[in-house]
Amino acid sequence: MTRTVGSAVTRGGLLSLTRLLTGIVRVKVVALALGAAGVGEYAILLQLYLTGVAAVSMSLAVPIINLGRPRLVANQINEAGSVAGTSLVVVGANALLLALLAAAFGDTLLAQLGVGGAAPILVWPIVAAIVISACSGAFWEGISYLCDRFDIYVRVGMIGAVADMVLVAGAAAAFGLQGAVIALPIGTAVMFGAYAISIGRDPTARELLRNLSAKVSLLPHLLSYSAMMFLTVALTNAGSTFLRSRVLVEAGATANGYLQAVTSLSSYLLAFVMTGFWGHLHARAAAEGDTAVARHELAKSLELGLLISFTGCGAAAVLAPFLIPLFYSHEFLGATDQLIFYIPGEFCFQLLSMFTAYQLTVSLKRNYLAFTLGYITLLVVAGALLIPMTGGTGYVAAHVGASVVMLGAAGLVSWRRGQISGRFLSTIGILVVALSAVCLGLLHVRQFGNSPVNLLPALVPFAISGYLVLKRL
C-alpha cells in the first residue's frame, strides 16, 4: 500500500469540493425555481431514482473489485475480465426488468408517493437515468477501482458534478419540476461517456475490456455479494423513501423541503469523509484481507476521518444559519434548528460508515450486514413512530438515535476483533459528547433570539481540529 491516506483524502476532497460547489449552484437554482413545496416533491422523485439505481446496479461494483482485484494482481486477466463481464450482463438483465415494471406500474407508483399529479410524464426519464447511472456505477466505477485508478473515479466524478449542475439547474429554471427530472438522464449520459473515454486510455483497463466474458459459474459468487449489497443499499434507500413520503403526507411538502435541506447538506459532509477513505483502502484491502497491513492503513484512515468529520460537522452546526440560505434560500431558514439537531447523529453516522466500509473491503459480510441493517431497521421503526407526532423532526430524531446506537455496537465489534484500539474508541466517545454539548448549547442560545454572528466563537474547537487535519494532509 504505497499511496498515502493523505493523498487519497486530498484527491477525494477535491472531488467532494467540486460536488459541493456545483451543488451550491444546482440546489440554489432548484430551490429558487421550485420553492419549498416543489423541492419536497423533487426530493421524493430523486429518492425514487436513487432507489432504482440501487436495485438495477445491485452494487455490482463491489464484487467486481473484491473478486476481480485479487485475480488482476495475480495477473489472471481473463478471470478478472469474466468477473466484470458477468456483472455487466446482470446489470443489463435488471435494466430490462425495470423497463417492464415501469411500463406496468410506473404511474401508479408516482401517485402512491404523492407526486403523481405534479409529474405525470416523468416515469421514463427517471427510468433512463436509473439505467445509465447503474451502468456507470456498477460497471465503470468497478473497473476504475479494479485497475486501482482512483484518479479516474475522481476526474469523472468532477465532470459528472459539473454536468449535473448545468443541466438540472438550467432545466429547473427554464421548465420547473419536469425540466429538472428530464435533465437527470442527460447528466448521467455525460458521466457515462467520460468514464468510457478515461478508462479507455488505461492500458490495463483496455486489456481487461478486451477480455470481458460472461460465465454462469461466477453467478453464485457475484450474487452472494450483490444480494448482500442489494439488500442493504436498496433497503436503505427504500426505507428513506418510505419515511420521506410519510413526512410529505403527514407534515406537507414544505416540511419535507426543510428535511431535504438538512439531509442534503449532511450528505456533502459524508462525501468529504468517505471518498478518500474508499479510494485509499478498497482496491488494496480487497487484495490483502483483514491483515495487520490493512489494519494499519485502517487506523491511519480512521484517525484522519475522525478529525475531518468532527471539524465538518461542528462547523456546519455553528454556521447553519448561514449555510442554509447559501445552499437554498431564506425560505428554508426554518430548517436551521433541525440541522443543528441532526449534526451529532450525522457525526456518529459518518464514523459508523467508516467502520462499515472496512468490513466490506475485507469481505467480512456478516459484520457489514449487521451494521447496515441495524441502522436502517432502527431508523425506520423510530421514524414510523415519531414522524406522525413531530413531522420532519421525527425523522431527524430517528437518525440521531439509530446512528448513536449502531456506532456504539460497531465500535465494540471492531475493537473486539482487534481492528481498532481501545484508546481510539474512547476518543470517539469524547468527541461525540463534545459535539453534542456544542449543538445543545447552540439550540438553547437560539431560543433567546441571539444573532448568528454572536455564535461564531463556538467555531474555535473546530478550527483547532481543522488545523490538525491540515497538518496530517
TrEMBL record:
One of its GO terms (cellular component) is plasma membrane. Keywords: Cell membrane, Membrane, Transmembrane, Transmembrane helix. It is found in: Cell membrane. The chain crosses the membrane at residues 20-40, 46-68, 80-105, 117-140, 152-174, 180-197, 218-238, 258-281, 302-327, 339-361, 368-387, 393-412, 424-445, 451-470. InterPro entries: Poly_Biosynth_Transport. It is a multi-pass membrane protein. This is Polysaccharide biosynthesis protein.
